[in-house]
Amino acid sequence: MPAEAMPESDREVAIRIRDLEVGFGEKTIMKGLDLDVYRGEILGFVGASGTGKSVLTRAILGLVPKRRGTIEVFGENLDELTPSSRKAIERRWGVLFQHGALFSSLTVKQNVQVPMREYLDLSERLLDELAMLKIEMVGLQPDAAEKRPADLSGGMIKRAALARALALDPEIVFLDEPTSGLDPIGAGEFDDLIATLQKTLGLTVFMVTHDLDSLYSVCDRVAALGDGKIIAAGPIETLLASQHPWLRAYFHGKRARAVAGGV
Amino acid sequence: MTTEPNASTEQAGDEIRAALAGRWVAAAAPEVEAQAGALLAAAEGARRVIIDLSHIERLDTLGAWVLDRTRHELGAKGLKADFVGARAEHRILLDEVAYRGFAEAPVVRHSRLVDFLVDIGKAVVGTGRDIAQGTSFLGEVVAGLVRVALRPSRFRLPALVHQLEQVAFRGVPIITLISFLVGCIVAQQGIFQLQRFGAQPFVVDLVGILVLRELAVLLTSIMVAGRSGSAFTAEIGSMKMREEIDALRVMGLDPVEVLIIPRVLALIVGLPILTFLSSMAALFGGGLVAWIYGGISPEIFLARLQGAIAMSTFLVGLIKAPFMALVIGLIASLEGLAVQGSAESLGRQVTSSVVKSIFMVILVDGLFAMFFAAINY
Ligand SMILES: Nc1ncnc2c1ncn2[C@@H]1O[C@H](COP(=O)(O)OP(=O)(O)OP(=O)(O)O)[C@@H](O)[C@H]1O
Ligand SMILES: [Mg+2]
Q1: Is A209 in the pocket of ligand 1 (CB under 6 A)?
Q2: Less Cβ crowding at N or C end of chain A, within 10 Å?
Q3: Does residue B315 form part of some domain?
C-alpha cells in the first residue's frame, strides 16, 4: 500500500476513528468520539489531565477494550483483522508510552533491539550499529546504551523509549507526552528530530502533549479532547480562534501568552 | 510493488558509476547489505565511485546507514566516493544518520578457572553478608516491635488483620488438605511396614508423635514460606522497584513499622494456628486410614493416642511455630528490600526468598530437635 497508489484528491487517512465509546465499569471516559489522523502529518493531541488522552491512545492500540465504534488504521478496521494482518499493522507503528515502559531487565540497546530482532533479518553488526544509531539520534550519549532503565534519568527514559519506538522506522508513531520531563533544549531537539523524521520518512505522528512549544513549532494540526469528545481539531489557528472555554484558557492563559509571544 | 534493492555498476576508466534502485529499507536488510557488499567489491581497483541515488524508491534509516557506511568504507580504501542525484528528503536522511564508527564495548575475557573461583568467593562473601544482614535486620524488627509495644497508638491493626486473613485464613484449605493427605500416607506406610512385625497398633504412636512433633510444623512452615513468604517478597520488592519505599521514608514513615511488622506479626500469630489445624488434619487422615486400611477402630485409635503422646509432644510442635514464622518473615522482607530496579531481579529475589526460607526452616527444626533432646522434653 505505498502512498502513490492512493488517489491524491483528498488527503489519505492513516487513522480513522468513528463513534468511539470507551469506559471502565460505571464510568464512561469518551463517547461518540470521531477523529481522523492524516498520513504524513504530526497531530498534536491536547486535553486537560485525566480527560482520556492516554486511554484513547491505548484504545487505538487495542490495549483498552472499546464499547462501541470503529477504528481504522491504514484503511483496515482493527476489529476485522486476522492475527497475521494485525501483526503486520503492529509492525508499522511504534509507541512511546507515557511512562516509558522499557523492559527493566534489558539494557537500553537491547530494548531497542527487541523489535528489530523480532521483525527484521539483520546481521549482528547491523543490529548493533542500527541500535546505536537510533540511540544517538534521540540524543542519548553512547554510554547510555549499556545502562538498564533503573539507572536512567527521567528524560533519558523518554529518549530511550523513543529510540525503541523508532526501531523499525514505523509509519505511525504514537507519542504520549514525549517532551514532559525533558529540559527545554532537549525538548526542542526532540521536536526537531520528529519533524526531520516526518519529512524524510513520511512519518505520521500522533502526539499527546501538554507542551505548547511543540504545538506551535512542529504540529501540523491540533486536536483537543474534552467531555469525552473532540472539541476542536485543525491547524493551531483554528483552535486559537475557538470560543470553547477550556481552549480559551489553554491557549490564552498566562503561560500560553508567554509562549505565543515568543514565537 | 516491492522491488528488491539493487546496485548496478558500470566502469569507465578508473571511475565507477553505481546506479541504485529499489527499496533500500529494513524489511530487505539482507539484500541491502549484500548489494552494498557487492558494490564494495566491484569498486576494487577503481579510483572514484559515483553512487547515483536518483532511482531509489524508498530509503529508511537502515538503508541510509548502510549506504553512508559503504561510502565511508570506500573512502577508507582510498577511493573517492560521492552520492549524486539524491532526492532532498534522502539527502536529509543521509545527513541525519551520518555514518560514524561506534566504539566497540571492551570485551573482558577471563579464564574459566578464575571465574569459577570468583563465583565461589562471591558466594561465601554473600552468605556471610546474608547472615550479618539478617541479624541486623532482626534487631531492626525487634526494635520496631518494641517501639510499637511502647506506643500502641502506632500499631497498625487493620494492616495486621488484613495480613492475617491473607496468611492464615486463606491458607487453611490447602494446608489442611495437604496435611490430611500426608497423615494418610504416613499411616498407610506405617501399617504396611509394621504388619510384618505384628506391631500394627504402634502405627498410632508413629502417626501421633511424628505429626505433632515434626510433620505438622514442617509442612505448614514450608507451605507458608511458599505461599506467603513469596508474596511478601514480591509485594515489598515491587514497592521497592517503584520507589514506594523511598516515598514512605521521606514522609517520615518507617518502612519496617508500616510494611514489615504487620506481616511478621501476622506470620507469628498465624503460623501456630495453621500448625494446630495441620496436626488435627493429619491425625484425622491417619485415623481414617488406620480404621479403613488397618482395621483400628476410632475408639482404639483415640485411646492409644492418649497413651502415646504427652502434652509435651503436642507443645514441641507449637513452640517451634512462631520461630519458623519469624525466620520466614525476616527472610521474605529482607529479600524484598534487596530487589533492584529490574523485573528479573524481582524474580530472583522471590526465588531466593522461598529457597532460603525453606532451608532455614529445616535447619531451625534440626536445631530444635537437638535442643529438645538435650533438655529431655
Ligand atoms: N484501567 C483503568 N481503569 C479505570 N479507570 C481508568 C483506567 N485507566 C484510566 N482510567 C481513567 O480514565 C481517565 C483518563 O485517563 P488518562 O490516563 O487517559 O488521562 P490523560 O488524559 O492521559 O491525562 P494525563 O494528561 O494526566 O496523562 C482518568 O479519569 C482515569 O482515572
Ligand atoms: Mg496520559
Answers
A1: no
A2: C
A3: yes
